[in-house]
């Protein structure tokens, strides 16, 4: 039970270990502000006409005043806001700002309410959608990748739910009995893609998904073998890679998020956690890609989005 698909690219994304605040909205607007200690807060204020971009700090609260035009509309881009925070003598001791993966910072984010840095992003009472079998209920895209280390509560028609299993990667719960017509809500914390850092890219990839057979042959099979599909597995082989050199090699080979893309799309069709099996003669050259065959071995489910 194996199928292969070629013409793929893949990227390794490092999850942020420290507390952070993310701005999750719109094309090229994504930002992540990583706490440099404690649980500080940051906000973006849009006020007045023809105002300049400025940064102020009171205690552990960083306030960014976006530049505005004659009509009072914000004009500061994400890139400009991040530069302003990182270049401010006081704010740069509290937060380190960076663009989210895939963002060039050209978008204008506008206002952001004061938000305290946290390990992940909390969600409260989000509605899970019935997958159609009345058993599995899933969060919408952007509300998945639940944090396995944080508590999760699920309600069924307003009462605490029971008799379900959780798939943290998918952001879903599966019940043992039909919940047709029920309202299923979830409260917990998730990992934000806006806080990820892309540290490794693979090209000219091939993805293989298969399973190990379980031998069930008995004397009643008249000399034939019989088997059942067993544990599923996936691996990704590549011929060319790019590494930005931000992390020690020992860390690159740990378990991280992998996103798999079609070469004609900027949206991943699958995501999972995997480990690079081996890297030989690695050159850290930010201006070139290295040709080196390698394999990424899945560490858990490959979630087909």
The CATH architecture of the largest domain: Beta Barrel
The strand count comes to 20
CATH class of the largest domain: Mainly Beta
Please indicate the count of domains.
3
**End-to-end distance, in Å?**
21 Å
**Largest sheet composition:** 7 strands, antiparallel
Look up the CATH topology of the largest domain. Answer: Elongation Factor Tu (Ef-tu), domain 3
Q: Beta-strand percentage?
A: over 45%
Mean pLDDT equals 86
Strand order across the biggest sheet?
12-11-15-9-10-14-13
Total helical elements: 2
Low-confidence stretches: 1-6
Helix content range of the residues, please? Answer: under 10%
Say what oligomer this is. Answer: single chain
Overview of this protein structure:
It is a single chain. The chain has helices at residues 78-87, 249-252, and strands at 3-14, 20-23, 31-35, 41-45, 54-58, 61-65, 95-99, 112-116, 121-130, 136-138, 153-156, 159-160, 164-167, 172-175, 184-190, 197-215, 227-243, 256-262, 270-276, 290-304. By secondary structure, it is mostly beta strands. It starts with a strand and ends with a strand. The chain contains two helices and 20 strands. Strand 5 and strand 6 form a beta hairpin. The strands form four sheets. A seven-stranded antiparallel sheet has the order 12-11-15-9-10-14-13, with no helix packed on it. A six-stranded antiparallel barrel has the order 1-16-17-20-19-18. It has a four-stranded mixed sheet with strand order 5-6-4-8, covered by helices on one side. The radius of gyration is 23 Å and the shape is globular. The longest helix is centred in the N-terminal third of the chain and has 10 residues, at 78-87. It folds into three domains: 3-13 and 196-304, Elongation Factor Tu (Ef-tu), domain 3 (Beta Barrel), CATH 2.40.30; 17-116; 121-192, no CATH class.
């Amino acid at each position: 039970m194996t199928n292969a698909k070629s013409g793929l690219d893949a990227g390794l994304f490092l999850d942020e270990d420290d507390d952070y605040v993310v701005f999750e909205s719109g094309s090229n607007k994504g930002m992540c502000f990583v706490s440099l200690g404690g649980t500080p807060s940051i906000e973006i204020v849009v006020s007045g006409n023809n105002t300049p971009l400025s940064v102020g700090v009171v205690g552990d609260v960083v306030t960014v005043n976006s530049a505005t035009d004659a009509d009072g509309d914000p004009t500061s881009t994400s890139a400009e806001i991040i530069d302003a925070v990182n270049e401010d003598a006081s704010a740069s001791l509290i937060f380190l700002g960076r663009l989210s993966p895939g963002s060039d910072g050209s978008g204008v984010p506008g206002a952001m309410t004061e938000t305290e840095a946290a390990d992940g992003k909390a969600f409260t009472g989000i509605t899970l959608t019935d997958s159609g079998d009345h058993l599995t209920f899933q969060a919408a895209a952007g509300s998945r990748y639940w944090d396995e280390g944080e508590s999760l509560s699920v309600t069924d028609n307003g009462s605490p739910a029971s008799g379900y299993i959780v798939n943290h990667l998918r952001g879903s719960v599966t019940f043992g009995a039909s919940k047709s017509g029920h309202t299923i809500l979830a409260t917990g914390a998730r990992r934000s893609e806006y806080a990820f850092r892309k540290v490794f890219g693979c090209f000219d990839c091939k993805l293989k998904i298969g399973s190990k057979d379980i031998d069930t042959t008995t004397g009643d099979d008249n000399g034939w073998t019989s088997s059942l599909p067993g544990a599923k597995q996936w691996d990704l082989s590549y011929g060319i890679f790019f590494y930005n050199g931000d992390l020690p090699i020992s860390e690159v080979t740990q378990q991280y998020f992998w996103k798999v893309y079609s070469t004609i799309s900027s949206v991943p069709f699958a995501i999972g956690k995997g480990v690079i099996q081996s890297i030989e003669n690695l050159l850290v050259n930010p201006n070139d890609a290295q040709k080196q065959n390698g394999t990424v071995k899945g560490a858990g489910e490959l979630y087909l989005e």
